[in-house]
Design brief:
With about 300 residues, the protein is of the alpha/beta class. It folds into 2 domains: about 5-215, 3-Layer(aba) Sandwich (Rossmann fold); about 220-285, Alpha-Beta Plaits, CATH 3.30.70. The protein has 11 helices and 14 strands. It has helices at about 45-50, 70-75, 90-100, 110-115, 130-145, 160-175, 190-195, 210-215, 230-235, 260-270, 285-299, and strands spanning about 5-15, 15-30, 30-35, 60-65, 65, 75-80, 150-155, 180-185, 195-200, 205-210, 220-225, 240-250, 250-255, 275-285. It has a 6-stranded mixed β-sheet with strand order 6-7-8-3-9-10, with helices on both faces. The chain has a 4-stranded antiparallel β-sheet with strand order 2-1-4-5, with helices on one face. It has a 4-stranded antiparallel β-sheet with strand order 12-13-11-14, covered by helices on one side. α4 crosses α5 and α5 packs parallel to α6.
Length: about 300
């Protein structure tokens, strides 16, 4: 798999604050990569460094498996701040200015406005746009020149639920065209619904990096029930691989030692002469995984 971005031992300090600490990341072509973390975790600083807006203290990064250069940065579109356009100019006129700055043809404007579903409002002044429409116009400007990578910093900040859903759907739509997306967010739901991969940062440090699907497929616990819940509870309390057990409605929720499967539990109970009427894995949510990672680092 071609590496779009490689970050090695990246560090950045602001006085005594170590904003980015020995960060290592690899991002493959075609993925939607979420950089997830609370405010102050180093997300925006990292994006600023890889876009050459901020200078790192040490470490390196490369785009498209080549040394960082002005030429390969032309293959990248980015939105780091609030969308800023001329309020009294139309979408088309604003994008013509952006195209001129980017040194790309303004013949691309029609295409990008259709992608973000603003073509019907192309002649409306920017000041008449809702905040969600302004954000979509910013995405259109980033798409000018047909970049291979798009970078977003908190793309749904300040939007209402409808606007959030629209931006998420747009990001997924763009990703399906083969564009690699790097998205920084503090919103778990946003990353879970839009990203294929995620890195969790806290205080500048990477706590976890991997596929979102791998995180969601981690079994956190088992739901289990039988016709005799009291007998089932006694048996499970005697099972050495059960770490925790609690009753919830008409079933038990058990946490297991790592490496113990639902099959192991069922086999143990069959050996005890107990037939279960319900046995299901409870998948760990990205939120639970995220909170556990933060708690582990605090401990």
């Amino acid at each position: 798999m071609e590496k779009v971005l490689t970050i090695k031992d990246l560090n950045k300090n602001y006085g005594k604050i170590h904003a980015v600490k020995n960060l290592n990341l690899e991002i493959d072509k075609g993925c939607v990569f979420g950089i997830l973390g609370p405010n102050g975790s180093g997300k925006t600083t990292t994006l600023g460094i890889i876009l050459s807006v901020i200078n790192a203290k040490s470490g390196s990064f490369s785009w498209f498996e080549e040394p960082n250069s002005k030429e390969n940065r032309k293959r990248i579109g980015a939105i780091l701040e609030q969308p800023i356009f001329y309020p009294y100019l139309s979408a088309v006129k604003n994008l013509k200015i952006v195209a001129n700055i980017k040194e790309v043809s303004d013949s691309d404007i029609e295409r990008v406005l259709k992608i973000v579903e603003l073509y019907d409002r192309r002649d409306s002044k920017f000041k008449t746009y809702s905040y969600g429409m302004k954000q979509r116009l910013a995405i259109a400007s980033a798409l000018l020149g047909n970049p291979e990578v798009l970078i977003f910093d908190e793309p749904t900040n300040g939007l209402d639920p409808k606007g959030i859903a629209e931006i998420r759907e747009l990001i997924i739509k763009i990703a399906k065209e083969g564009i690699t997306i790097i998205l920084a967010s503090h919103l778990l739901d946003e990353v879970q619904k839009t990203c294929t991969h995620v890195a969790v940062l806290k205080s500048g440090e990477k706590l976890f990096s991997g596929k979102v699907s791998d995180v969601l497929n981690v079994s956190d616990s088992l739901e289990i029930a039988s016709n005799n819940l009291e007998l089932l509870s006694l048996a499970l309390n005697e099972y050495k691989n059960v770490l925790d057990l609690k009753k919830e409605h008409n079933q038990l929720i058990i946490k297991l030692k790592e490496g113990t499967s639902a099959f192991n539990v069922n086999s143990y109970l069959v050996g005890k002469g107990i037939v279960v009427t319900h046995l299901a894995e409870k998948k760990k949510s990205l939120e639970n995984q995220f909170l556990e990672l933060l708690k582990e680092r605090d401990d």
